[in-house]
Amino acid sequence: MSQYVPFDRIVDKYEIAGTGKVSIRDFLSIIDEVGALQVDTAPILLDDDQRESAKIFIRNNSDFTVTRDELKSLFFELTGQKPDSIRMQSSRRIRDDKSMKNGLKRREKNDFMLFADGLPSAPYQNTNNIGYLTPRAASPVNPVGHSTPLTLQKPGNSVRLDDTAPMDQDSPVIESLVERIQSQEELLRKKDAEILNNRRQMEHLLEELDTTEAEYKNCLSQAKLWEKKCRESMQESHNLANQLHTVHVEYEEQASKLERLEGILQDFEKERKFELEKLSQQEDLDGSQEKLIRENHSMRTNLTKLQLECDRLSRLLKSKTATDGVRPRGLTPRFTQTSIQECLDITGVPSIGSIPQEQQLVSNLGLLVKELNDQRLIIEKLRRLRHSNSNAHKKSSWLFSSLQSMIPFGKHSYKHYIFLSFFLIVGLYILCLFIFKIGLFYNWSVLDPFQPKDTYVWPPS
């Protein structure tokens, strides 16, 4: 009665403590141990080519560790048999750990040879993995292909499957060997098919690797392009920062010029106010002079009327004296020396003494004409003085007239224009400063040169 090989118990001895995994270096030892426990009529698990390829793969990947399930899958792919379905003769038992380890060491020392009768190992193949194997030639027995027909070599002779030498069919050893060779040939067909499949998968993986490499190169070129753009952006940000600093310096210069211009305008405004006050005082003086002239003229007119009335009265008295022959005493002197003298005293006319009345009237008329000429000359002088004052006012306010002519809008005065320009400049400065502070707060990349390290001091303006 036969039972299955205890594959799990064999793997437990090689399992790394606490990980549930087995090193790939123990794979051939596990296969040898399973092959030692299987029935005698069962085919070998690995031929020499497969074993040599497995050695090379293990030597190149000695750090790999696989789980129990992965180990079973690898066992099935290499041998074509499930590890839990391999039968073991009932008379055999699993050897103890010490004897198995000694046996494994002997197998490793003898290059993992399975048969004691000396089946020769295949020559060394320059491969790095199990899938890289030499294709086998197709044959009627093996449609997948094999390099050469399998031979059973013994010391001194060799037996081929295609030889027609007579054999003793009753020999149980030969029958077991034939069955074993046939099963091994079937296993090789499966392995060749698996190898071809692995090659196709490898080619597919190589194509994917080439595609991935092309994508990587494309990504690398894009990264270099973005790096170049980033450097250009940084250079542009440095240029913008320099421009901002230049604008700040120009703004300070314009602000200083504006302050000087405001001082000049204030001085001119004070001078203009002084000229206006002087002109108003001159106008008041002219008005008072004109008022005095009008009053003087009215007094002169009244004086003329009085003189004419006196002349008429004198003529009337003369005519009456001539007719009556009597000269009224005290009437004419009282009239001429009281009423007329008072009027003449008011106007500044010389007093009437012993001068006759006719001569008095003639002298008064001459004085009146002289006074009128003097008043005319005074009026002309006042007009010339007013004209000269108006010319001086025009000369002193030439700056204001030129500023008014420069205003583009006729509805606004120069003051409105100056204040509007001042408020516009101040508003633009406040807006730029506000945007600059926001950029520093949110760490804009454009303003990285302006980020404070320890302290940041503006350059002197």
TrEMBL record:
Keyword check for Phosphoprotein: no
Residue stretches spanning the membrane: 417-442
GO BP field: mitotic spindle pole body duplication; mitotic spindle pole body insertion into the nuclear envelope
Highest taxon above the source species: Eukaryota
Keywords of this entry: Coiled coil, Membrane, Transmembrane, Transmembrane helix
Coiled-coil ranges from the UniProt annotation: 174-222, 251-309
UniProt keyword Ubl conjugation present: no
Protein name: Spindle pole body protein Kms2
Species per Swiss-Prot/TrEMBL record: Schizosaccharomyces japonicus (strain yFS275 / FY16936) (Fission yeast)
Organism ancestry: Eukaryota, Fungi, Dikarya, Ascomycota, Taphrinomycotina
Gene responsible for this protein: kms2
